[in-house]
Fold this protein.
Amino acid sequence: MRAAIAAVLFVALVPAATAALRPPAEAAPGFPSVQEQRQAIHRLLARRAIVSCGGGHGDAVALTFDDGPGPYTAQILRILRRRHAHATFFVVGNRLEYWPLAREEARLGGVGNHTWSHPVLTRLSPWLVWLELLRTQYAVESEARVAPELFRVPYAIHSRATDEVALKLGLVEVFWNVDSRDDVPHARVKDIVGNVVRGLRPGAIVLMHDIHPWTLAALPRVLEAIQGHGLRVVSVSELLALDPPAPGQHCPYPQVRGD
């Protein structure tokens, strides 16, 4: 029965999950085109690459936000817009009903898949892993008219089996190499900013979360710090087009945990 349900869902939802990426409403001069971003993603998919940083040869830093949308996301979008900064939002699909912001997030960089309900995927049966990713693909595409092409696994816990599901859906799996640690309860703004500054370098992918008030408070200072280092703030897909990791480049990410 479960296999039959999974098959029906796959047939129903894959067309939305694989829909063509449409140009964002806000095109920015000096940033790679949507076509260039898609080509970079497809090259990484062909290599079956998992990404946690760029090549380190340009001036771009990718800012990412996990676990939203939430009550602070709209304000974060306004700050990014004022600063002419881009970001990637790895959204939890079941939160879009309460904060339907995927279209605005897509306009300011991109929307990634962070599963439907934020479970530990390695504890789920394979058909439920498919369902977690497919429901979010469908929800984002239905609202934003753009299907995610990037995926971030909850809790950084993955396996070869979960990696394979993402690959079959045409999703590049993305981790990070700079952790702001804004998920620490009642994190202090100065600590968040300091954690980002210590890791700043060309090609960095910065992890933040758009569900905390202290993240909102820290964001202007984070952006000032990045730009003060002569770096520009981009989305992950823009980073992959501007400064992709080279084949065989040492770019560590959390290791596979079983199957």
